[in-house]
């Protein structure tokens, strides 16, 4: 397993990221987005917690979100995928421009994986909390089929724009959504409503809840392992 951090702004202005490869010449990739105020190192330890021994080599990419002021935190500057402008969970909660800017940065990371020989159908977009919201937003609008979308302790941002903006290439993308029933940061009921909305649109979504707060528990990790085996064993196929 190799671990490195790319902190340089290269020619394509990619976000800096931590990268971990589970083997030589990765055939698959997971682009995993952290939550508000964290950074790419936050989920770095999760790779060692996952049993991926029966899968092809995977490159985990943990990008660092840009620094920006966050309105609900008094304008304090922190790593954030978008500004949160309202403390409630109405349609006014997230800054649309920030969401779309971050989605474009994720598109650049996907394109970079393509240049390294990893096809879109072998790439999972993953994220926790605010990062999970961006994974959903970007993945459902991406123009080529992905292996899957993993969205943990999160919700669907800019939900009202999705019907018009969703791309047909990912209408059948496998989605894994999970939430802690005791989550006081992003209520489980909000995540569940987002999942139900996606299911009503016909997406093949797995919904999981756990006896947890705003975090990832061991039972959840075991379910993620199972899901990874399904989407990476036969990339691009539907996963019930």
Largest sheet data? 8 strands, mixed
> Assembly state here?
single chain
* H/E topology pattern: EEEHEEEHEHEHEHEH
Q: Beta-sheet strand percentage? A: 15-25%
Q: In summary, what is this structure?
A:
By secondary structure, the chain is α/β, with parallel strands linked by helices. The protein contains six helices and ten strands; from the N terminus they run E-E-E-H-E-E-E-H-E-H-E-H-E-H-E-H.
Q: What this model shows, in words?
A:
- The chain is 29% helix and 22% strand.
- The radius of gyration is 16 Å and the shape is globular.
- By secondary structure, the chain is α/β, with parallel strands linked by helices.
- Residues 235-240 have low confidence and may be disordered.
- Strands 1-2-4-3-7-8-9-10 form an eight-stranded mixed β-sheet, sandwiched between helices. Strands 5-6 form a two-stranded antiparallel ribbon.
- Helix 1 (46-49) links the parallel strand 3 (28-33) and strand 4.
């Amino acid at each position: 397993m190799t671990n490195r951090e790319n902190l340089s702004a290269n020619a394509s202005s990619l976000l800096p990221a931590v990268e971990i490869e589970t083997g030589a010449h990765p055939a698959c990739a997971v682009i995993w987005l952290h939550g508000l105020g964290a950074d790419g190192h936050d989920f770095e330890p999760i790779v060692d917690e996952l049993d991926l021994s029966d899968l092809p080599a995977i490159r985990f990419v943990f990008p660092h979100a840009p620094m920006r002021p966050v309105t609900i935190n008094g304008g304090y500057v922190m790593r954030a995928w978008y500004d949160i402008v309202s403390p409630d969970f109405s349609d006014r909660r997230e800054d649309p421009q920030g969401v779309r800017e971050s989605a474009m940065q994720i598109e650049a990371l996907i394109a970079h994986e393509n240049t390294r020989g990893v096809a879109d159908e072998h790439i999972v977009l993953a994220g926790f909390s605010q990062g999970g919201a961006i994974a959903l937003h970007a993945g459902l609008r991406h123009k080529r089929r992905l292996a899957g979308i993993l969205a943990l302790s999160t919700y669907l941002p800019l939900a009202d724009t999705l019907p018009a903006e969703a791309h047909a290439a990912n209408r059948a993308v496998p989605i894994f959504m999970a939430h802690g029933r005791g989550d006081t940061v992003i209520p489980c009921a909000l995540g569940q409503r987002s999942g139900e909305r996606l299911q009503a649109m016909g997406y093949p979504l797995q919904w999981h809840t756990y006896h947890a707060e705003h975090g990832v528990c061991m039972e959840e990790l075991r379910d993620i392992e199972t899901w990874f085996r399904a989407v990476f064993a036969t990339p691009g196929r539907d996963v019930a």
